[in-house]
Automatic annotation (TrEMBL), chain A:
Protein name: SUMO-activating enzyme subunit
Domain of life (superkingdom): Eukaryota
Family: Belongs to the ubiquitin-activating E1 family.
Limits of the Ubiquitin/SUMO-activating enzyme ubiquitin-like domain: 545-637
Ubiquitin-activating enzyme SCCH domain location: 432-472
THIF-type NAD/FAD binding fold domain location: 110-535
Biased composition (Polar residues): 303-317
Biased composition (Basic and acidic residues): 657-666
UniProtKB/TrEMBL annotation, chain B:
SUPFAM superfamilies (UniProt xref): Activating enzymes of the ubiquitin-like proteins
Organism: Linum tenue
Gene3D superfamilies noted in UniProt: NAD(P)-binding Rossmann-like Domain
Domain of life: Eukaryota
Domain THIF-type NAD/FAD binding fold: 102-381
MF GO annotations: SUMO activating enzyme activity
InterPro entries hit by this protein: ThiF/MoeB/HesA (IPR045886), ThiF_NAD_FAD-bd (IPR000594), Ubiquitin-activating_enz (IPR035985)
Any single GO CC term annotated in Swiss-Prot or TrEMBL for this entry: cytoplasm
Name of the protein in its database record: THIF-type NAD/FAD binding fold domain-containing protein
A biological process from GO: protein sumoylation
Pfam families to which the protein is assigned, alphabetical: ThiF
């Protein structure tokens, strides 16, 4: 009882609080210096052990309800008589978490763990570690869902997999590997997408807890909604480099995964990509999304590759043909023609528009004859070294050109040689796939082609070139990952899962793994947060959409809002009682025709017109998630900042980027790129293979995060109510620039609340 | 000539004429040197006097100084200004196979660090659950070799927390823990050489440890740990020394990178001098160690019946150290004594942190722990404690404190 701080947590009525205050006032002034009652606002937040300032030894802190208070007393500083009185009080009302009284290791035999049915979503970096730790901790009924197959770059941390397993289902191999050292437990593997309709609310209801080890925002949102609908607790996790996070989401008790804004992946204005790139990322996006897609992807897809040059020349006929290989044309000739067109002719066309280059550096057109002689072209590559045709993913232009180290910077000539060689190999060895190829970071030849094309474009625009290794990281959206962080995070997940199963609500924690020591800590626990009352997922708060109802089609709304922002997989859109759109297997032909006709109509001319003031109801039957959207008409949208042509308000606030925020050089091969500012535990997402286009994230991750300085935040006055706090939070969110984007789902809300707690 | 602890191992690559293995051709322009440095270290650095100056290179020479700090950075370009440029580096490039396998982690710590990892040799003693986790982590990270030592046979405890041991009796009978773990670890990464050394730990001579860059000791008495620590310290080469213990929901890591306190000093600091906020686990672990030593117990062999004796020893120690009895909470000691077996999630966490520390020490990237790390499930904090005697009379005080502990134990 001589410990520094004593926590008393018991119900106090308001009159008793007043009495305490009076007692406090009776103390001498000297005593009052170290027994100070700190007035607190009656907010929704909990007290937190490590956030108490040392100078306030006596705190009264409200917890969940107005009448439930905690007293924190620094016993060492109290007069002896008062201390004794408090010991007495402690005896009567002590509340110690259950876990503090019993050894943890004996829990392995506990019925709460043995009898628990657990769902693990994701068997990747975190998943492998998690499955092992769960099995060792005594869990006996585990289900795993993962749609991925094993790749070589997984083997450095996903230790349940071996070289011989490459290409097999992660979920199945992980199951077999763990059964080898725990043969008597039940593990069920599902090699499937968690978004499949078979994993519905009923499926989720059979589990006691769901553990996420996912790599993308979309799936995380989906699981969050299913867990809310099925009322199953969710333990969410993520890592990047040495940073990691684990959080608990229990409906009604804590926030849900979507209570805090998660910045969505960055999209770039079309004209930056097609005509005025200023960063290497822009070149990568151009090479990957436009050039690669145009040459090897679906020919019927819309493609902006020639948009700008068309505007100036008007010779649409010519550009139609340019990318088509003529019947008797040699691959070499075809390659030169493409090269000269995209790096030479198109640049010259763009240059002819003087207006564009007034305040920019003019690009330099590059023609193949300038960089690579006909002679060199002839002896370019020896195809027999390029890998066998049996395994298309192993074909390599680098190998056939004798370029070994992927970390080397290639010269313009080397890049051009790789460009031609890759094109030749695509036509020589993988002709069947042309027309249906999509960029894949594990497709060596595709990475080589994109690196070379991006570098040539970068050279033309005076942007520094990058190595294949770096370019691959940017193009493939590769997340840094190490085994140790995943192991630590898996351990933290199991600890939280056990607390959830024991219903030990008070000791739920959100934990951060930090790279730099903060307050003496490398693993930092934080109290979970209260549900966000304005969260549209768990509180059903309506959203507002600003849109031009006379120009935007229903299709734009479905693609850009319902699918991209709300992450719905099988949406249903209603205006009042009339159905505008629906996805499902059981629709008859008339309905399908009706819906596809609706898709092409602008909002204001739909069968039941959608105009300013209309409220749309969007529902996902699989996720059992309904969302109301108030439509607000707006005429103009800024092409640079609002490329979607519509703005969703009340949803994840993606702050507008300051103009010069990420000019810092990309340090792909340097020291760890996750230099999060020390006071701010960054939250990671993802292990490997993020699906969405999100190149900016890696580009910007090398810089220090500019967090709000804690000194700038003043203590909220006691009268402050939750709404004000929310407003303040939103304001803060706007200020923080979103470096990490999809990679780092930094809980802005959390940080703010966290900061306040620290201050207290 | 700077000294950078273990991770400052000097490596040289040269541009001057006396170069044997130039990384870049001698005719390289300064901007190529800059680009090379940028690639290797993330930014070009010049070490000059007592400052580290970050510079930007252009073809015409060092164009402008971007900023400087007096911090000692791990990676250095030592410039004999204008006339000669000497760069430090060693070893060949990573193979294609390595680059493919380690792709994701090279993006975290860089190719240079990965090369150093693949040349490092690690010695591990005491194959319990936490150490198994640690071994998995460093084998996956791609160290050069791991040497295991533990002659004990398989017990139920080992089966419960060590996932490297297959549970079939016909597989494990007749084999030692180290042999079984070795078999499993080999499979994790064919590029890492894993082997078993059979010997009595205390009898190993100093020269035995010469072969290693990192020594990790677990589950053995504190006296043995101190002995090994001293042997490592006496070597001319820098050997990073770690000890690790997990009990129930708590874990402890001690780190000695030979630039700070010996284990002996660190474990015998006078309690009264330590900060009041020092993790209670530090004291609790010392009580438990003293109890084991006094009663001749093997580490971690405890039962509920020992609780009163442990609490009594605690009272004596607190008295002898002239600190209040509540310095070490009874509930914490009870937990450590009753639940002496390892709790798998804590093994994963402590094994992960230790792996991270060893990687930091070898690669020279990041700030290493100084000098204890603690984790307890109950508060969920992973805390770093800097245990040293701050007062000038530290040495005499700490030896006095060591004497106090010995006396109490003897009584």
């Amino acid at each position: 009882f001589h410990s520094c701080l004593l926590f008393l947590s018991f119900p106090f009525s308001l009159p008793r609080i007043r009495k305490l205050v009076l007692v406090h006032q009776r103390f001498s002034l000297e005593d009052r210096l170290f027994i100070s009652l700190v007035p607190c606002s009656i907010l929704q937040y909990h007290s937190h052990s490590f956030t108490f300032p040392l100078f306030a030894p006596f705190l009264l802190l409200p917890t969940t309800t107005i009448f439930h208070w905690q007293i924190v007393i620094d016993l060492q500083l109290l007069p002896r008589s008062f201390r004794l009185a408090l010991y007495f009080a402690y005896f009567i009302c002590r509340s110690i978490p259950v876990s503090a009284l019993f050894p943890m290791a004996s829990l392995q035999q506990s019925p709460a763990i043995k009898g628990a049915k657990v769902l693990m979503v994701g068997a990747g970096g975190i998943g492998c570690e998690l499955l092992k730790t769960l099995a060792l901790s005594g869990f006996e009924d585990i289900h795993i869902i993962d749609m991925d197959t094993i790749e070589v770059s997984n083997l450095n941390r996903q230790f349940l997999f071996r070289q011989k397993h490459v290409g097999q289902s992660k979920a199945k191999v992980a199951r077999d590997a763990v059964l080898r050292f725990r043969p008597h437990i039940s593990i069920t593997s599902h090699h499937a997408n968690v978004k499949d309709s078979s994993f519905n609310v009923d499926f989720f209801k059979q589990f006691n807890v769901v553990l996420n080890g996912l790599d993308n925002l979309d799936a995380r949102r989906h699981v969050n909604r299913l867990c809310l609908a099925a009322e199953v607790p969710l333990v969410e996790s993520g890592t990047t480099g040495f940073l990691g996070q684990v959080s608990v989401h229990v409906k009604g008790r804590t926030d849900c995964y979507e209570c805090n804004p998660k910045p969505s992946p960055k999209t770039y204005p079309v004209c930056t990509i097609t005509s005025t790139p200023s960063k290497f990322v822009h070149c990568i996006v151009w090479a990957k999304e436009l050039l690669f897609a145009k040459l090897f992807g679906d020919k019927n897809q819309d493609n902006d590759l020639n948009v700008r040059s068309n505007d100036s020349t008007g010779s649409s006929e010519q550009t139609e043909d340019v990318f088509e290989r003529k019947a008797d044309e040699s691959v070499e000739h075809y390659g030169r023609r493409i090269y000269d067109h995209v790096f030479g002719y198109n640049i010259e066309q763009a240059l002819s528009n003087e207006e564009t280059w007034k305040n920019r550096n003019k690009p330099r057109p590059i023609y193949s004859s300038d960089v690579i002689s006909a002679e060199l072209m002839q002896q370019n590559g020896s195809s027999n070294k390029a890998g066998s045709a049996d395994d298309p993913l192993s074909v390599s232009a680098m190998a056939s050109l004798g370029l070994k180290n992927p970390q080397d910077l290639w010269s313009l000539t080397d890049n051009s040689r790789v460009f031609f060689e890759a094109l030749k190999l695509f036509f020589g060895k993988r002709e069947k796939e042309i027309g249906s190829l999509g960029f894949d970071k594990d497709d060596q030849l595709a990475v080589e082609f994109v690196t070379a094309a991006a570098n040539i474009r970068a050279a033309s625009f005076g942007i520094p070139l990058h190595s294949l290794f770096e370019a691959k990281g940017i193009a493939g959206n590769i997340v840094h990952a190490v085994a140790t962080t995943n192991a630590i995070v898996a351990g933290l997940i199991v600890i939280e899962a056990i607390k959830v199963l024991q219903k030990d609500f008070d000791s739920y924690r959100m934990s951060y793994c930090l790279e730099h020591v903060t307050q003496k800590m490398l693993i930092m626990p934080v109290q979970p947060f209260e549900p966000n009352k304005s969260c549209c997922v768990c509180s059903e708060t309506p959203l507002t959409l600003e849109i031009n109802t006379n120009h935007s089609k229903l299709r734009d709304f479905v693609e850009k809002i319902v699918k991209a922002k709300l992450s719905m997989t099988s949406p249903l859109i209603m205006h009042g009682s009339s159905l505008l759109y629906e996805v499902g297997d059981d629709l008859d032909e008339a309905m399908i025709a009706n819906y596809s006709a609706n898709l092409e109509k602008v909002l204001s001319s739909l069968p039941s017109p959608v105009t300013s003031g209309t409220m749309l109801t969007v529902e996902d039957l699989l996720q059992e998630f309904t969302c109301n959207i108030n439509i607000k008409h707006r005429e103009e949208f800024d092409e640079e900042n609002e490329p979607d042509g519509m703005v969703l308000l009340g949803w994840t606030q993606v702050p507008t980027k300051p103009k010069d925020d990420d000019d810092k050089p990309h340090t792909g091969n340097g020291v760890s790129t996750s230099k999060t500012s020390e006071t701010e535990p960054a939250v990671a997402q993802a292990d490997a293979g993020v699906v969405k286009i999100n190149v900016e994230a890696i580009d910007a991750s090398g810089k220090k995060r500019k967090g709000p300085d804690s000194k700038d935040i003043s203590l909220d006055p006691p009268s402050n109510v939750a709404d004000e706090a929310t407003a303040a939070n939103h304001k803060k969110v706007q200020q923080i620039d979103e470096d990490e984007e999809d990679l780092v789902v930094l809980d802005q809300w959390d940080i703010d609340t966290n900061k306040k707690q620290k201050l207290r | 000539k700077p000294s950078f602890g273990l991770y400052g191992t000097r490596k040289t690559f040269l541009f001057s004429s006396d170069s044997s293995k130039p990384i870049l051709p001698c005719s390289s322009t300064l901007s190529e040197v800059g680009a090379g440095l940028q690639r290797e270290f993330g930014f070009p650095v010049v070490w000059f006097g007592r400052c580290v100056i970050q510079v930007q290179f252009t073809d015409s020479g060092i164009s402008r100084v971007l900023g400087f700090s007096s911090l000692l950075l791990n990676c250095l370009l030592i410039v004999n200004l204008v006339t000669r440029v000497r760069l430090e580096m060693e070893g060949e490039q990573l193979t294609e196979q390595e680059t493919a396998l380690y792709d994701r982690q090279i993006r975290v710590w860089g190719a240079d660090a990965q090369r150093r990892l693949s040349k490092s040799h690690i010695f591990v003693y005491g194959m319990k659950g936490t150490v198994a986790e640690f071994c998995k982590n460093i084998v996956l990270a791609g160290v050069g070799s791991v040497t295991l030592m533990d002659d004990r046979a398989v017990t139920n405890e080992a089966l419960a927390s060590n996932f490297l041991i297959p549970p079939e009796e016909k597989v494990y009978s007749g084999k030692t823990l180290a042999e079984l773990c070795c078999d499993s670890l080999k499979e994790f990464n064919p590029m890492v050489h894993v082997s078993v050394e059979k010997a009595e730990l205390v009898t190993l001579g100093q020269q035995f440890f010469e072969k290693f860059d990192v020594v990790v000791i677990s589950s053995c008495p504190p006296a043995t740990k101190i002995l090994i620590n001293e042997k490592c310290r006496k070597l001319s080469k820098r050997v990073a020394f770690y000890t690790v213990e997990c009990r129930d929901s708590c874990g402890e890591i001690f780190v000695d990178l030979q630039n700070y306190k010996y284990m002996k000093e660190a474990t015998s600091a006078p309690w009264g001098r330590l900060q009041r906020r020092t993790s209670k686990l530090y004291f609790a672990m010392r009580v438990i160690e003293s109890f084991e030593e006094a009663n001749g117990r093997n580490p971690g062999v405890f039962s509920v019946e020992d609780v009163p004796a442990v609490l009594q020893l605690k009272r004596k120690l607190c008295e002898a150290q002239s600190v209040s009895e509540s310095f070490v909470p009874d509930t914490l000691l009870e937990r450590l004594v009753i639940g002496s077996i390892e709790f798998p999630p804590v093994c994963a966490i402590i094994g992960g942190i230790l792996g991270q520390e060893v990687i930091k020490a070898i690669s020279g990237k990041g700030d290493p722990v100084k000098n204890f790390f603690y984790f307890d499930v109950v508060d969920g904090k992973g805390v770093i404690e800097d245990i040293s005697s701050r007062a000038p009379e530290a040495d005499s005080a700490s030896s006095k404190s060591a004497n106090i502990i010995t006396q109490v134990v003897l009584e």
